[in-house]
Design goal:
By secondary structure, the chain is α/β, with parallel strands linked by helices. Helix content is 48%, strand content 11%.
């Protein structure tokens, strides 16, 4: 790299000529100046802060080719396309990775050797290949830019072992300046990066992690799918990303959004690259509004107007959470960051760690604890995040759920003094979790092995649980009374400020923690309860049913069952489509009997000014039962019921259960061929007439009672009842 001093005016000229900006953002200019002067630099800049420009501009102004080491093929392609957009020479930027053909690789190498190429993007795996090392020896390398540098650290949220081999390769190729860039790094991760890249003396540039346009909220994970759909409907037409931890959940949730009329697509690493590429393009081109993705999505995306980022599952670390939420509002506009949290999810993540090396499990658990602390805390969310990344923020953000809906405060001075003294008692050698267990009096392997169940403070804080004491330590960290040791991550150490506080304790107001009860991760409430939610409407619907039944000379239950009417009193359906979502009402029934009931409900809703939950009802994805289709087709073919049951591994009674579900939803099924063969004609007539003339409810129990003194089996009654309902109701 040329170290001839380049004046500021020339740098601004290049900024204007290639990138179209008149001035730099934040620390960009200082970073660029350091690199052009031939010095190593470490850049910590949140997503949307303009990291890429910090190496793209110096590359254009330097002799030779800059080697940019980047972890994702999609990210490289985006960056190369962007650079080619800035220049009339398509050879100005290239990438070298496994997606290229041999012919394409030859073209890339020719452009680099002919000095046309100013930026060469390389995956860490490609950098280590012998043929590439031999090739790069022939290249005049201006500098190395290591993007997503947190991948070097086991404490980072996306550890990649290949990143640890970068420095030895750089040494082999010959020394040039190094710039390491990341959007998320705790002090521990930063130290790891610099140490591993042998750049502890590098100039460090840290932009503030504060993004004032982002709103942070944690919600209890209850009916999360419904909550998400309601949220998206309120933010119709806006772009958003929803993150899930598993591919299965990504696909399920995307399907649920689609059936609810939301333009959404799934995205995860298990899909082929063409599908992923198309989905990403559709999102950028606004063909779809929402991407449901695993963390495989986002690193390479450069969409400035993402308006919301939702985490269906709590992430494994605060680094990944901060980076993923950072994709919202990169244009400075609205950015809503909603996370659904249930402690059940944390326990699942802990189970996934089992079987991994012990050191990896330790790190993973520590990162998870930080995430739990963030989710359950009632302190300003932004202050917590900034504190985690080593940045102090004195005031509260005023733009998160905890600030806008503050929890009750209480005097924390006695608890804080107790907690700080505990750190000194164990000589500053333990983590918050361990100290909390000691104070509460929980004996576990670690407590007994260090004989901490024998010290004075053991059980001295037993009037509160360990979550309370964890919260005390968390608030002491935010107040800078204690710190976490960087080298031995998680060990609590007193700061000077903490020692001063113990000498002169003063009032210290604390806030109560959120208590997120462990709820089913996505339980949908059963709308068809045992009683009507609106007894007046229920009574009107029953009267209407009686009128229709009388007119058609049918028992009332044939029209709509009581559970169906009960559900109508909670959902207030006013269209045929809405009526078909009521349990026990299929398309056939809705079309045959629905109009009068819909008119009645519509009038009732209007007259009583009712806010219908139906306006926010979420359609479930119809799980097309393989059994249902098979049974209908087999009965159409007049296959013996015993053979149908055997083919599906069912008992006859279970097969009848399935058939009853099918006919109760309005599908017509003709089992006359089976009844004619198996039952006496007179018996069939008796049972049929009972359901037609005597039964008021269609109840099987009542029918059994009616025929208890006759030679009639439960199976025979059920078969005739199926024939009757299918003929009369469907």
């Amino acid at each position: 790299m040329t170290h001839k001093r380049i004046d500021d005016e020339a740098i601004v000229d290049v900024l204007k000529k290639y990138f179209g900006f008149d001035r730099f953002k934040g620390l960009q200019k200082e970073v660029i100046r350091t690199l052009l002067d031939g010095n190593d630099s470490f850049v910590l800049m949140p997503t949307g802060g303009g990291k890429s420009l910090c190496y793209q501009l110096p590359a254009l102004m330097s002799e030779g080719t800059a080697i940019v080491i980047s972890p994702l093929i999609a990210l490289m392609k985006n960056q190369v396309d962007a650079m080619r957009g800035f220049s009339s020479d398509s050879g100005i930027a290239h990438f070298l990775n496994s997606s290229l053909t041999k012919t394409e690789i030859i073209k890339v190498k020719e452009d680099v050797l002919s000095k046309r190429t100013k930026l060469l993007y390389v995956a860490p795996e490609s950098l280590g290949k012998e043929e590439n090392v031999d090739f790069l020896r022939k290249v005049n390398i201006s500098f190395y830019a290591i993007d997503e540098a947190h991948c070097i650290s086991e404490w980072g949220h996306d550890f990649r072992p290949e990143y640890r081999r970068i420095r030895p390769i750089i040494n082999e190729l010959g020394k040039s300046p190094v710039i390491a860039l990341t959007a998320t790094a705790t002090p521990k991760v930063q130290h790891d990066i610099q140490k591993n890249l042998d750049m502890l003396d590098a100039e460090v540039f840290k932009s503030s992690f504060r993004r004032e346009n982002l709103y942070y909220e944690v919600r209890p994970k209850h009916n999360a799918s419904k909550e998400i759909i309601k949220f998206i409907r309120k933010n119709e037409g806006k772009s958003g990303i929803i993150y899930c931890l598993s591919r299965k959940k990504v696909e399920e949730l995307a399907e649920t959004l689609i059936v609810n009329g939301i333009k959404a697509k799934a995205y995860h690493a298990g899909m082929d690259s063409a599908t992923r590429s198309q989905t990403q393009d559709d999102f950028l081109m606004e063909e779809i509004d929402v991407i449901v993705a695993t963390i495989a999505f986002g690193m390479g995306i450069d969409k400035p107007d993402v308006r919301f980022v939702i985490h269906y599952d709590i992430p494994k670390s605060l680094e990944s959470y901060y980076q993923e939420t950072g994709r919202a509002g990169r244009d400075g506009g609205e950015g809503l960051c909603i996370c659904f949290y249930s402690y059940n999810d944390i326990q699942k993540l802990e189970k996934f760690m089992q079987g991994k090396p012990v050191a990896e499990q330790e790190i993973g658990k520590q990162l998870l604890l930080e995430t739990v602390a963030y989710a359950e805390s009632s302190v300003c969310r932004v202050r917590q995040l900034l504190n985690y990344f080593g940045e102090e923020m004195k005031e509260s953000c005023g733009n998160c759920d905890n600030c806008l809906n503050p929890k009750k405060e209480f005097e924390g001075k006695p608890y804080l003094v107790q907690a700080l003294n505990a750190i000194l008692t164990v000589k500053e050698r333990f983590k918050a979790e361990h100290l909390s267990n000691v104070l509460v009096g929980n004996i576990n392997a670690a407590v007994s092995s260090y004989k901490h169940d024998k010290i004075d403070i053991f059980g001295s804080g037993a009037e509160h649980d360990h979550r309370f004491w964890n919260a005390v330590y968390r608030q002491a960290l935010i107040a800078r009374l204690i710190r976490k040791d960087i080298e031995n991550y998680g060990l609590l150490k007193m700061t000077e400020k903490g020692h001063e506080y113990l000498k002169n304790p003063s009032s210290f107001m604390m806030v109560e923690n959120h208590d997120y009860e462990a709820k089913d991760t996505d339980t949908e409430t059963n709308q068809a309860g045992s009683s009507a939610a609106d007894p007046i409407l229920f009574s009107m619907l029953k009267n209407q049913r009686k009128k229709v039944a009388k007119r058609l000379d049918l028992p009332p239950y044939i029209i709509f069952s009581d559970p169906s009417l009960q559900e109508m009193t909670t959902q207030y359906p006013i269209t045929t489509e809405e009526l078909t979502r009521i349990s026990g009402v299929g398309v056939g029934k809705a079309e045959k009997y629905g109009d009068e009931f819909l008119d009645l409900i519509n009038k009732y809703v209007e007259e009583n000014n009712i806010d219908r939950p139906q306006d926010m009802v979420v359609k479930s994805v119809v799980k097309k039962s393989g059994n249902k289709v098979f049974i209908i087709k087999s009965i159409d073919k007049k296959m013996p019921l015993a053979d149908i049951a055997d083919a599906r591994g069912l008992k006859i009674s279970e097969l009848l259960d399935e058939i009853e579900v099918i006919i109760n939803s309005g599908t017509k099924i003709n089992i006359d061929y089976h009844i004619t063969e198996e039952l006496d004609e007179e018996k069939v007539e008796d049972i049929y007439n009972y359901f037609l003339e005597d039964s008021e409810t269609g109840s099987l129990e009542e029918a059994l009672e009616e025929f208890k003194n006759e030679d009639v089996s439960e199976e025979e009654i059920r078969l005739v009842r199926i024939k009757f309902i299918s003929a009369m109701a469907n």
